[in-house]
């Protein structure tokens, strides 16, 4: 049981979005799972028409549930992007079957390829690079492939710290991008501080990696929830932002919102239009509706839902 009673967030101020924030949030994406999507009566009350919606594939989720969620999103006017976690896919035949199901029932044209969060592979695949090498996505007409980005490193890939293996993988993906017709981008793990992200993006560009960055941002949530997810997902340096906030009891009682980091990122993007940071991707850790309400309140015309008159 929590020792703290979190009070509800104050209503969003009735102020127009800044042009910089509106531009940054234009074309944002968001992530759902089948079980969280089931709690949403109609995505058209929450998201702009055509929003890219990633569908996270957690170990144990039946492929039938994943495909049904993708089909529903397509029917409501959204662009589903299912996850393909390499380590839970048994073999090439299974991969081809999954792609065919998504194509047949949801007409997908895009996918997020990642290693996946399990320690031991269930079959033949260990990395997203192996999935790309099969050629099955190109064969099926899946023309956009996103891969994982790690602004703060990843101890599953570089267990001793640092980012040597992560960078090697990015260079391989950059080379794949250059020799293939696929549209590619990086969807990153979430972070809470703008400075390290900007420095990371600048470093990639200086080293010849030009894949656009779709920056992962945690949506509004209780501070305890964010700290739990940050530790579980290996978010490192920017976790200090949450820990510092946790020491301030007056702030601890309020939900954490991404206003500060996105304000900083919006200013950076406005001043550096050639930055690799192309779009924002929301992880709705405090709930899809909560995330959508924040975006609607802060994004101006770029975040108006497809059905703005519907009740959320």
First-last Cα distance: 29 Å
For the largest sheet, list the strands in their spatial order.
1-2-3-4-5-6-7-8
State mean pLDDT (0 to 100 scale): 88
**Computed CA radius of gyration, to the nearest angstrom:** 19 Å
CATH topology, what is it called?
TIM Barrel
What percent strand?
Answer: 5-15%
Please tell me about this protein's structure.
The chain has 13 helices and 8 strands. The protein is of the alpha/beta class. It has one domain (19-300): TIM Barrel, CATH 3.20.20.220. Strands 1-2-3-4-5-6-7-8 form an 8-stranded parallel barrel. Residues 1-13 have low confidence and may be disordered.
Give the arrangement of secondary structure elements:
Blueprint: H1 19-25, E1 29-32, H2 34-37, E2 52-55, H3 63-75, E3 79-85, H4 92-106, E4 110-114, H5 128-133, H6 136-140, E5 144-149, H7 164-179, E6 183-188, H8 194-206, E7 213-218, H9 223-232, H10 239-246, H11 249-252, H12 259-271, E8 277-283, H13 288-298
Parallel strand pairs: 1-2, 1-8, 2-3, 3-4, 4-5, 5-6, 6-7, 7-8
Helix pairs in contact: 1-12, 3-4, 9-10
